[in-house]
Amino acid sequence: MYALTDPQVSHALAGSGAGAIAATIVCPLDVLKTRLQVSTLRVGGDAYVSTLQSLSAIARTEGFVGLYRGLTPTIVALLPNWAVYFTVYEGLKEFMEPVGAAGSQSWSSPHLRHMVSAAGAGVATVLVTNPLWVVKTRLQVQHSEALRASMPTRVPYSGAFSALGRVAAEEGARGLYSGLAPSLAGISHVVIQFPVYEQLKLELASRRGKATGDLTPTELVVASAVAKMVASSVTYPHEVIRSHMHVQGLGPFEGLFGLIGRIYKDGGGWRAFYRGVGTNLVRTTPAAAITFTSYELISRQLRDIGAFYRDSQG
């Protein structure tokens, strides 16, 4: 119980719990989004038409389990992902908070603090979880007949942990950290998302004359959903590149520009970098709303529990 009085523990528990809840709910859309990303006009481009038709086709040909491929590594990755992310984000934000007149003037802007905190947290989570995202991507696409011709020939992975072991044994760090370059570039996503989210919370709280910690779940849903839509729309191309690198196992930085050229050529121009963006918005907007709202509400409950424990001990 004493651990709950530690803010870092609260951030970690709240973040990991919120991420797991959201990932389970939107997993079918994540499967479809990943397959759309790695398809091109030349290979599998017309295999997935509308969202509902595509989900129905996956369920019909692969069964219900097909809609939840990659959920295990997603959950396993999200636990450290959001735990590390929210913990580092809140820690950096608190570290850069000015203290009185002698406070650090260089971090006096809340927007700058939020951006730097988001970037630092993003780097930490990418380095910790990249191998699990590689496994997740491969599990989600390996049973797609439409994409089979565009993927390397591999014996199908039987599960998340065996896949992780095989990638480590067969490809080493090169395979485990394939797609690292676009993942690091994707930190721009959270650098946009978190400041927008924080600013929207401030705006909503100011209009209603209350503190951000007193915002209702509905207000938190609105702020998190809008922030996610803005960030996702601006930074989506890095996700397409990353998914291709995960599947191909190109290594952390190898072949990046050649791959970009091939996606452009085979996918019919720049629109290839936005394949699946609609499905992604349908998936990420509610997922972000669930994650951030759950995080805020779980954090409040943990703070209340911690405060009650401290009071009872005093």
UniProtKB/TrEMBL annotation:
Q: Which coarse location class applies to the principal site listed for this UniProt protein?
A: membrane
Q: Which InterPro entries match?
A: MCP, MCP_dom_sf, MCP_transmembrane, SLC25A32-like
Which GO molecular function, any one, fits this protein according to its record? nucleotide transmembrane transporter activity
Q: Name one GO cellular component term.
A: membrane
The alphabetical list of record keywords is:
Membrane, Repeat, Transmembrane, Transmembrane helix, Transport
Q: Give the location in the cell.
A: Membrane
Record Pfam families: Mito_carr (PF00153)
Membrane-protein topology? Multi-pass membrane protein
| Native organism | Micromonas commoda (strain RCC299 / NOUM17 / CCMP2709)
User: Is Membrane found in the keyword set?
Assistant: yes
Query: In which family does this protein belong, per the annotation?
Result: Belongs to the mitochondrial carrier (TC 2.A.29) family.
Mark the Solcar repeats by their residue spans: 6-95, 109-203, 215-301
Listed name of the protein: Mitochondrial carrier family
